[in-house]
Amino acid sequence: MCGRIIQASGPLRYQLVEGLDVPDSRLSNVPRRYNGAPSQELFVIRQNHETGERSLDLLKWGLVPSWSQDPKGGRKPINAMAETLRSKPMFRDAYRKRRCIVPVDGFFEWQATKGGKQPYATRMKNGAPFGLAGLWENWKDPASGEWVRTFTIITVPSNELIARIHDRMPAILQPADYERWLGSDPDPHDLLITFPAEPMKMWPISKRVNSPRNDDEGLLAEVDLVAAS
Length: 229
What we know:
Blueprint: E1 4-7, H1 11-14, E2 33-36, E3 41-47, E4 54-61, E5 79-81, H2 89-97, E6 99-104, E7 106-113, E8 116-124, E9 130-140, E10 147-157, E11 168-170, H3 178-182, E12 200-204, H4 225-228
Parallel strand pairs: 4-10, 5-10
Antiparallel strand pairs: 1-2, 1-7, 3-4, 6-9, 7-8, 8-12, 9-10, 10-11
């Protein structure tokens, strides 16, 4: 499960995510997201398979497949399990043709406890942004002709750090694999592996993060679980 992400570095830094060459973005006025949530428009890196050009775009989190009759109804999955991408109709076509990278500074996960779910923040120890494996889709409104573009984040089994609180984590790509993931390879499934725990850190944070209306840097402050219990 991956239900919230941090995109606080801004487009200029995401264009320089290690291993990628993304043209200058026109999205400089997009607000920083310390609590990026489903249904919001968030940064996604895509590649045009015909021209090879990469772009940093805003897509809505929650996949709407191209064959959907109505994007307002039905499931809009925010996550896709790596193990079933190639078999589920919801993801199968996007996996072959419309893979993307979601650049983040970190993500949140919740641990089930007797006192309710406790949120944790996770990021790299060096503070650098990193890329999550994702899929994106186009849906065309038959009435207006308007295109709706959405995405989902792929998950894999957790490493030993995240496994302390949850059995799934987002699929984090190695920089050396960005190009292949975005490219025309129809089945780069071997890239969807559990990222090692050593470069990462995780800490408990305030339950204020439970509401997407709270979207400020203070959400990342570590809390004392003993004092809070």
